[in-house]
Inverse folding.
């Protein structure tokens, strides 16, 4: 979805974990803003913000703290879920990555791994509904879900549109992370870091599993009803968690633009619904219209 401006930054993965003592007094060479008060730290040589006293220890560190960068050393599974934990619960440390180059290709790989975590449960639910058949797979009250998931000709179109929609909604928040008032290098870092915010969506495997249980149990009994409710409600909860993470990260990486969080709060959910209407309904209707027009010509 997004391309960074200028050259791609690369995060060094073999940097030493500690720095010389004189690094604590090294002058900060570019505009960098305190996460707590928004004070511009450019040319600062102390180890604390002079405005609020916030520690700059991790800001001055040369080694990135994002676990995903070290996936070759610690393993992809651990690196991926540690990054999600960092994004969700260690946002101050994550926000201070604005002080270092952030690898754009790495964040894009993380984003696409997350998209696969969302898509695979949908694919498995489709296969489960197809295996059981229309007369038995009725956990949501009628055959509409089954027909949408398993009818022979819509299946490729349905899954293509789902992947297109997931790519769109995980990319669109990046448009709110590059205010013109900050240097291009920092805009690139903020854009790259915004892609990590979609990490909580990887938990979609939970409602996906619940949907499969609901299909297998045909929506009957307390367990079937609970699984059905869980499969419907939890995706919205994950979207809410993602939105909250976007708000917190925007305040961390762009503390001098506090109002940007309110813009994200208002616009991003609206864009989710707009893209859903455009991609999941608008494109199929347009294709169907073209098919009808073409059929009447012969």
């Amino acid at each position: 979805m997004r391309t960074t401006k200028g050259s791609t930054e690369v995060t060094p993965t073999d940097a030493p974990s500690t720095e010389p003592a004189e690094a604590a007094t090294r002058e900060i060479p570019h505009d960098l803003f305190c996460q707590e008060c928004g004070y511009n730290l450019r040319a600062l040589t102390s180890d604390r913000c002079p405005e609020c006293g916030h520690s700059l220890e991790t800001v001055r560190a040369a080694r990135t703290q994002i676990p995903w960068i070290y996936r070759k050393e610690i393993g992809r599974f651990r690196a991926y879920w540690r990054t999600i934990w960092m994004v969700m619960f260690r946002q101050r440390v994550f926000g201070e990555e604005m002080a270092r180059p952030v690898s754009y290709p790495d964040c894009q790989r993380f984003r696409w791994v997350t998209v696969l975590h969302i898509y695979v449960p949908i694919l498995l639910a489709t296969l489960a509904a197809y295996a059981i058949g229309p007369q038995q797979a009725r956990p949501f009250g009628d055959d509409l879900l089954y027909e949408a998931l398993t009818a022979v000709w819509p299946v490729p179109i349905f899954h293509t549109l789902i992947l297109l929609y997931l790519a769109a909604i995980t990319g669109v928040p990046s448009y709110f992370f590059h205010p013109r008032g900050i240097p291009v290098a920092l805009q690139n870092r903020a854009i790259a870091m915004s892609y990590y915010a979609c990490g909580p969506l990887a938990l979609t495997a939970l409602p996906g599993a619940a949907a499969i249980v609901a299909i297998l149990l045909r929506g009957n009994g307390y367990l079937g009803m609970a699984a059905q409710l869980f499969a419907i409600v939890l995706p919205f909860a994950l979207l809410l968690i993602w939105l909250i993470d976007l708000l917190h990260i925007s305040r961390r990486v762009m503390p001098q633009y506090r109002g940007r969080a309110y813009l994200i709060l208002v616009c991003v959910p609206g864009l989710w619904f707009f893209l859903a209407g455009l991609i999941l309904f608008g494109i199929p209707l347009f294709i169907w219209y073209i098919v009808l027009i073409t059929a009447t010509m012969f």
In short: Residues 103-296 form one domain. The chain has a mean pLDDT of 78. The radius of gyration is 23 Å.
